[in-house]
Amino acid sequence: MHPWAWWCWAIGIGIAVSGTTNPLLLALIATAMVVVVMLRRSEAPWARSVRAYLILALFVIGMRLFFRILLGGSTGETVLFTLPQIPLPEWAAGITLGGPVTAEAITGTLYEAFRLAVMLLCVGAANALANPRQALRSVPAALYEASVAVVIALSVAPQLIESIARVRRARRLRGDSTATLRALGTIAMPVLADAIDRSLALAAGMEARGFGRTRGLPTAGTLPVMLISSAAATLGVFLLLGSPFWQTGAWLLVLGMIGGGLGLRAAGARLRVTTYRPLPWRFTETLIAASGVLAAVLVLGVGWLDPDTMSPALVVLLDPLALSPSTDPLQWPTLTLPMLLVVALVLAPLPLTRPRRAATVESTRNDTRVRLLRAQAEPEPTWR
Amino acid sequence: MAVISFDRVGVTYADAERPTLDDISFELPEGDLCLVIGATGTGKSTLLGAINGLVPHFTGGTLTGRVLVDGRDTAQNRPRDLADVVGYVGQDPLRGFVTDTVEDEIAYGMEQLGIAPTAMRKRVEETLDLMGIADLRRRPLTELSGGQQQRVAIAAVLAAQPRILVLDEPTSALDPTAAQDVLAAIGTLVHDVGLTVVLAEHRLERVMQAADSVLWLRGDGSALHGPPGAVLAQSTITPPLAALAREVGWAEVPLSVRLARRRAQAQGLRPAAVSPATVPTEPVALSARGVEVRYGDLVAVNGVDLELAEGTVTSLLGRNGAGKSSLLWALQGALSCSGAIEVRGQDPRRLGAAEARRLVTLVPQTAVDLLYLPSVGAECAQADAESDAEPGTAAALLAELGVDLPPERDPRDLSEGQRLALVLAIQLAARPPVLLLDEPTRGLDYRAKAELRRIVTDLAARGEAVLISTHDVEFAAATSTRTVLMADGEVIADGTTTEVLTSSPAYAPQMAKVFAPVEVLTPDDVARGLS
């Protein structure tokens, strides 16, 4: 599966999530997201990242709730409990510590926090499902050098860790087992020298194998086109989100994106590097990406509708207000038909893709692991 | 038609006193295997780099004269422009890898050349088969063994279908079997594919029989290019067969064991066997029982019993990954292991690092990891402090080892041999009764190896128990009296060096093969046996 298809799907759902605070819908989306990740992720290390994102999401909810309660200033009538109010000096006017805590305020905060948490989860899902290396390999040609730098950094980091472990172990042979800051310095010196040697060897290897050979001169005019397009796109986003001129904003954004695309294309044309086994973009990829986009369109579209100008039957069917249920007065959130559609779109990749085969790792009995000399029971020194 | 031609080529690096290469002219015809030999620091790597333009485009320095590669002048063509003609594999293949899996690495060069994806796919498959690494295709590069990495590195440059292959010490870090694999692969390329190969190597034993010509860098910048037998007879680089030719007065060096054997038989040479040496077993300096090292579920050392007697030199042979390094680290006490280890009634594992090195000292594979100070003098002073020794102990040891190093030299500028001597002096400053050496001959030329042999023999004469893990059979044969063979974490043979080495087909030194069934190990043995 193409990594950008996963990203498109996840970002689309993220945008859809940004358009609602309905906790029932959010909970359904989050569950569906986790189900897709669990059933479709690979065995690779990055596939385990979704757990970290879940923890981060819970942390976000906890923090928002904590500050809501601590900072007080709740509106609403249903007082759950009252914290002792701490008087603050004159200059901190407008901020209160403690005071009554209402159910309305708590619910409102929870809804907001839940939305943010599910958006984080979307990013986590994309991370777990898309292979980052493949994603880097299929960046536009104009960004080739940048992606090479990232790929090299990814390969060099483990080597650096190995180098540190080796030098630290060697230091013990000289009878120096202390873990002082000075010792850290003495380790840094050979490790850095080693890193520089490695970089030079790598650069020589890349040069000898033709890196940078298929470059032409950049096409004239690419730079102004890129600058103007990105400025237009930025202004467009600003107008779209933060001002009543959203129509102008949308036009600017579209124009900026088209201009940027053309600029990237022109800049990439000078590079004639080919890609080994390029990932094909098939119909399935389009469907998965489309399901994300559709989810976003659906939620934002329904949210944009004005219930006052609609026929009562449509209002009952679509019910735009259900996307952001009122918290003051408190109201039980409801599910509507479009919301179920959104959840179905989140689950769309399940029938479209097959589960990945478990990667079989052959046994590697060779000198590499021995060279690392990773002792099992050796205590880690603590730096003081 | 010469595919490589050097016309009065000289290379001088910035702030060097004299040129590294001076007025070198030679031509290599298509399909030849040329072996570049010379002591450390004579400019072997510089010469190889000059072939694909890394010298001077990448390394700096001044190039005089003209290097033509497939009709292209390297002065006008950068290395990247020559990538479709010259495939270059550096000394440590792992460091030159750009991607992280075998398949991607092989494709990388072709991607840079802009070869169409369909053609690329086909060539990757062909190259995988040609080098016999198709089963490794999806493996991460860092998980491969040394021999596999070397073959992947060669495959990676071959995929771009160059006409010339340049290899800098492709077998120096490999065990005999892995080295044989790599050399066999290179042989296929020369004989079947018709590639021109230029190869620099320190250990000539196995390579020289495949060479069509030898280029000897004398060390003063000049070079001698000619047929292998004749050049080797003149050069100061003496692999065992060259030493044998010198001992018995052959004008031309036989390039293979087979040739030497035939010539010896024709002349009726039959040296007397070396008198079976008895290895002393008492007094015991180090005793280990049931040593076991595990990495997760991998058992690297599986219940090894070993006793080292004072004043003996023992070599430890075995494949890469047989558990040699792990055993050495475990014996030093730096690696947690089960079993009993005793030196002078104490267990090095129970002591702190500073006390442990007074019992057993280890010089690791990458000896340079031990050095971190800016000068030789500072390193020696630090060693004295670490060992609670009299100031000047390490410096005196360095002098005793017969290596004269000015105290203000930067350890990083030393040659491999000098650096090893410095690390030895630092480690011996604690006066330990047991010395462990892990792969000390890596990157050493024949002269440096002879020097190391002398140092080790001297140390043993002073009562030190020395254990050397090595892939270099010839060095083991010349240096040690006892040999321990390891495989799969276990000791599979333990006896006098003569006994163990002559009975093993993979580990027999060349002299043993030439004069089998007479048990001789080194050219010195032969000389003694003939007189």
Task: Describe what this molecule looks like in 3D.
The complex is a heterodimer of chains A (384) and B (531). Chain A is mainly α. Chain A has three domains: 1-133 and 281-355, no CATH class; 139-213, no CATH class; 218-274. Chain A is 63% helix and 4% strand. A two-stranded antiparallel ribbon of chain A has the order 1-2. In chain A, helix 2 (23-40) packs parallel to helix 4 and helix 10 runs antiparallel to helix 12 (337-347). Chain A is globular. In chain B, strand 18 (482-487) and strand 19 (490-496) form a beta hairpin. Chain B has two domains: 2-237, 3-Layer(aba) Sandwich (Rossmann fold), CATH 3.40.50.300; 284-530, 3-Layer(aba) Sandwich (Rossmann fold), CATH 3.40.50.300. In chain B, strands 6-7-8-3-9-10 form a six-stranded mixed β-sheet, sandwiched between helices. The longest helix of chain B has 18 residues, at 176-193. At the A-B interface, helix 6, helix 7 and helix 14 of A face strand 6, helix 4, helix 5, helix 6 and helix 11 of B.
SSE layout:
The complex is a heterodimer of chains A (384) and B (531).
Chain A: H1 3-18, H2 23-40, H3 49-71, E1 79-86, E2 97-102, H4 103-129, H5 132-137, H6 144-173, H7 181-208, H8 222-242, H9 246-268, H10 283-304, H11 312-318, H12 337-347, H13 349-352, H14 367-372
Helix pairs in contact in A: 1-4, 1-10, 2-4, 2-12, 3-4, 6-7, 8-9, 10-12
Chain B: E1 2-12, E2 21-29, E3 33-37, H1 44-52, H2 54-57, E4 62-69, E5 72-73, E6 86-89, H3 93-96, H4 102-113, H5 117-130, H6 146-158, E7 164-168, H7 176-193, E8 196-200, E9 213-217, E10 223-226, H8 228-234, H9 240-248, H10 257-267, E11 284-295, E12 298-309, E13 313-317, H11 324-332, E14 338-343, H12 353-359, E15 360-363, H13 376-387, H14 393-400, H15 416-428, E16 434-438, H16 446-461, E17 465-469, H17 473-479, E18 482-487, E19 490-496, H18 497-502, H19 510-515, H20 523-530
Parallel strand pairs in B: 3-8, 3-9, 6-7, 7-8, 13-17, 13-18, 15-16, 16-17
Antiparallel strand pairs in B: 1-2, 1-4, 4-5, 9-10, 11-12, 11-14, 18-19
